[in-house]
Design brief:
Layout (H helix, E strand, L loop, with lengths): L5 E4 L6 E7 L4 E6 L4 E6 L5 E5 L4 E6 L5 E5 L2 E5 L6 E6 L7 E8 L5 E7 L7 E6 L6 E7 L2 E6 L5 E6 L4 E7 L6 E9 L6 E7 L5 E6 L3 E6 L4 E7 L5 E7 L5 E6 L6 H6 L6 E5 L13
Antiparallel strand pairs: 1-24, 2-3, 3-4, 4-5, 6-7, 7-8, 8-9, 10-11, 11-12, 12-13, 14-15, 15-16, 16-17, 18-19, 19-20, 20-21, 22-23, 23-24
Protein name: SMP-30/gluconolactonase/LRE family protein
Family: Belongs to the SMP-30/CGR1 family.
InterPro entries: 6-blade_b-propeller_TolB-like (IPR011042), SGL (IPR013658), SMP-30 (IPR005511)
């Protein structure tokens, strides 16, 4: 296992999530879901900007036209960073007022994949959707509890997905042209003492970097054989997600949360809710942009 140094960026999120590297702006974005906050940290100036929305804000992605794509409550919207104007695109599960989005990514064809959960964390209440240019959400998986981390292999043959309470990373056959998926196997089983798998990203060697909620670490797993390869220890219990960024795509931005911590624990782990920058020995990929 390697030893990693970290730099913390104060943000004190109740539920930090949705890390995203915006190469054009050379900045990292992330969100505080419960408080509807969007953070942007410019890597060179080290300045952090904050915007607020009167919604649950779970997902930050990028459109080919230069605007951000935001997952707000159960709706997808475009957000113009210059005018700060929101344009609503589509909605899922409008009949379930307690549901919200949780995690989202753009696939190699520019389609948005985004999952839902019940804010009561009702077992089996969530689903995973795929949204293409027609803006008609297509359900890909149902009976999920906490729809979470996603990643695609470089050859576009495999889609990895996490439903957090299962403590499994599942591999699906992925059909690039159609966006169809078929379950293949359980790629990684997470032991109970390591916490719960949350958000994740994939590196250029095809290994998965997974945030472990309740596990104080980001773990690097080999999805081909389920082997644990490496870990990044952090001074907070609830690690929520991670993404590669920086000029060389070798820096992980890692989000964390204060939720489910007592006052005593918050005093013990005062950096909970902040984000961490960690230089790694590998590189990730530039995020794909949505074609909507």
């Amino acid at each position: 296992m390697n030893t990693y140094n970290y730099t913390s960026i104060p943000s004190q999120c109740f539920l930090g999530e949705g890390p995203y590297w915006h190469a054009g702006r050379q900045s990292f974005f992330w969100v505080d879901i419960e408080n509807g906050k969007l953070f942007e940290h410019h890597l060179k100036t080290r300045e952090t900007k904050k915007r607020s929305f009167p919604h649950y804000l779970a997902v930050v992605l990028e459109s080919e036209d230069g605007s951000l794509i935001l997952g707000l409550d159960r709706k997808i919207a475009k957000f113009d960073l210059e005018t700060e104007e929101l344009s609503w695109l589509c909605e899922v599960e409008s009949e379930y007022q307690l549901h919200r989005f949780n995690d989202g990514k753009v696939d190699p064809k520019g389609r948005i994949w985004i999952g839902t959960l019940s804010t009561k964390f009702t077992e089996g209440a969530g689903s995973l959707y795929c949204i293409d240019k027609d803006l008609e959400p297509k359900k890909k998986l149902s009976n999920l509890t906490i729809s979470n981390g996603m990643a695609w292999t470089e050859d576009n043959q495999t889609f990895y997905f996490i439903d957090t309470p299962t403590r499994q990373i599942k591999a699906f056959h992925f059909h690039l042209e159609t966006g169809e998926i078929e379950f293949d196997r359980v790629a990684v089983e997470i032991q109970e003492e390591l916490g719960f798998p949350d958000g994740m990203c994939i590196d250029q060697k095809g290994m998965l970097w997974v945030a472990h909620y309740g596990g104080s670490c980001v773990y690097r797993w080999n999805p081909k054989n389920g082997e644990l390869l490496d870990k990044i220890d952090l001074p907070v219990p609830h690690i929520t997600s991670c993404c590669f960024g920086g000029e060389n795509l070798d820096t992980l931005l890692i989000t964390t949360a204060q939720e489910n911590l007592s006052e005593t624990q918050l005093k013990e782990y005062p950096l909970s809710g902040d984000v961490f920058l960690v230089k790694t020995t590998t590189k990730g990929f530039l995020a794909k942009k949505a074609s909507i």
